[in-house]
Design brief:
The structure is a single chain. α1 crosses α4, α4 packs across α8 and α6 crosses α8. β9 and β10 form a beta hairpin. 42% of the residues lie in helices and 19% in strands. The protein contains 17 helices and 16 strands. It is elongated, with a radius of gyration of 32 Å. The protein folds into two domains: 339 residues, no CATH class; 107 residues, Immunoglobulins (Immunoglobulin-like), CATH 2.60.40.10. By secondary structure, it is an alpha+beta fold.
């Protein structure tokens, strides 16, 4: 097949040339079909979760809140502290493995259906189509002179874009600051400077990325588009063009027989290019700019229906299957789906997800840090007893208050001189001072290992044993 070669650089009078190509605005055509419905279903699902989750209440507080000021993360009934960073690390590893798994199975599903850039670009283009019209109308409007109608359409579009961007920025900040308090501050114009900065920053990022940069983010800024090729193989499901069936392409009357004209099924209508959000031609083969949204599949199936041809000229398939015999295609796809790479990713995901859930369910909600009083290592108290002072930082990660009993062991006769029980409120921490006493001459001079036993009075299963050292002066 002969393909057109487009020059990308022309020499000037001095013999110099530039390889820079100015960006040309894309005008994606609206498309309907099964994959378009799936894509909009993903948009609705993700946005209902994103906009609604911060307003959900749990035990009288925000259900999901990453409270950076208080250094506490609330995830429904779970309260995480900075010491629980391992859970965040595990979650990031699971997210990365999930991305690898779905990419190995079916290419850039994340990019095409759930990536925030794709989701908000869809929303912004939906607003654009309803204020400026479809592809032809938008191109005509942009090419025409400024007037009252153009100004009104552009103004309404920008107003709706900015409103959606501000709502998105406000909701995003609501995951890191109590959203109800944040809303009251915004309405009373008493929002803090840092909160205002991040609100405007994320709103501007949403407005700029989804409204103007669009495909440039996917093509030039997103690193995933660059390393995705390393995760593809001959058995990865991707959007493909059946070159064997479609070529040679060319226009023809609707009732004409392609074989009689020496043509393939592709009528060269270029609709697959016009609906592509990144502006590529899928007929040129697999390209890193393809985000797997399947808009070209929907529009091509529509054209095939009108021409009376079988669907699937552009379809989800694998490199191995698209070059196989037509009757063997489905069998080849299914037989190679459960290949070693996919099985390894799946096993790792099951193990990590199971371990994370088990750890969260069985974790001890009580955490204790023991800190010695470094100002006074030891002193002699009443009746010659030796005293060491400690500070215990008690952290209660449960959803109810705990009454804590503190005991100590490790040296004969050692005891707690200060009050030995304390109450720690739900999802909070409390620092308490504790004095440990040892009878005179109960141990040799020097440092001796001891253990503080911290137990919840009503729930003995909630307990900790923390090591410390007791100093006996010479």
């Amino acid at each position: 097949m002969v393909r057109e070669v487009i020059p990308i650089a022309l020499a000037d009078d001095n013999g110099l040339f530039s390889i820079y190509q100015a960006h040309q605005k894309l005008y994606p055509r609206a498309v309907t079909g099964r994959f378009a419905h799936l894509r909009w279903g993903a948009v609705f699902m993700t946005q209902i979760i994103f906009y609604g989750l911060p307003w959900l209440q749990w035990n009288g507080r925000q259900a999901v809140l990453f409270d950076l000021g208080a250094r506490k993360f609330y995830l429904f009934g779970t309260v995480l502290w900075p010491q629980d960073f391992v859970y965040l690390a595990a979650l990031l590893i699971i997210a990365a493995l999930s991305l690898f798994f779905f990419t190995a199975v079916a290419g850039r599903l994340w990019c095409g259906y759930a990536c925030p850039q794709t989701v908000y670009t869809e929303l912004f283009m939906w607003i654009e189509r309803h204020t400026e019209g479809d592809r032809a109308a938008r191109m005509k409007l942009d090419a025409g002179p400024w007037g009252a109608e153009k100004l009104a359409r552009k103004g309404v579009k920008q107003a709706l874009w900015i409103a959606l961007a501000l709502l998105t920025g406000f909701t995003f900040i609501g995951y890191f600051a109590p959203i109800r308090e944040l809303g009251a501050q915004v309405l009373s114009l008493s929002i803090g400077p840092w909160q205002l900065f991040w609100l405007l920053f994320y709103s501007f990022a949403t407005w700029g990325n989804a409204g103007f940069m669009r495909e440039q983010v996917c093509k030039y800024m997103c690193p995933y588009a660059r390393f995705q090729g390393a995760m593809f193989d001959r058995d990865t499901l991707v959007v493909t063009y059946d070159e064997r069936r479609g070529e040679p392409r060319g226009s023809r009357p609707r009732k004409a027989e392609p074989a009689a004209l020496g043509l393939g099924s592709c009528i060269d209508c270029n609709l697959c290019v016009q609906v592509c959000p990144t502006g590529i031609d899928i007929r040129q083969g697999q390209q890193y700019e393809c985000i797997g949204c399947a808009a070209c599949i929907d529009v091509c199936d529509t054209v095939m229906d009108k021409m009376g041809y079988a669907r699937g000229l552009v379809r989800y398939s694998t490199h191995r299957a698209v070059h196989a015999a037509p009757e063997d295609t489905a069998h080849r796809i299914l037989s190679h789906l459960l290949r070693p790479r996919v099985l390894i990713y799946a096993c790792l995901l099951v193990v990590l997800c199971g371990g994370l859930v088990t750890s969260l369910v069985t974790r001890n909600p009580l955490r204790v840090d023991v800190i010695r009083d470094r100002n006074t290592l030891a002193r002699i108290g009443d009746a010659g007893r030796i005293e060491n002072a400690y500070r215990l930082n008690l952290m209660n990660a449960s959803e109810h208050a705990l009454v804590i009993d503190i005991a100590v062991e490790g040296i004969d006769g050692i005891s707690i001189a200060s009050p030995s029980h304390f109450e720690v409120a739900a999802a909070s921490n409390r620092a308490v001072a504790v004095r440990a006493l040892v009878p005179p001459q109960a141990s040799e001079p020097g440092a001796h290992p001891i253990r503080f036993l911290i137990t919840a009075r009503v729930e003995p299963a909630i307990a900790r044993a923390e090591k410390a050292s007791f100093i006996v002066p010479r």
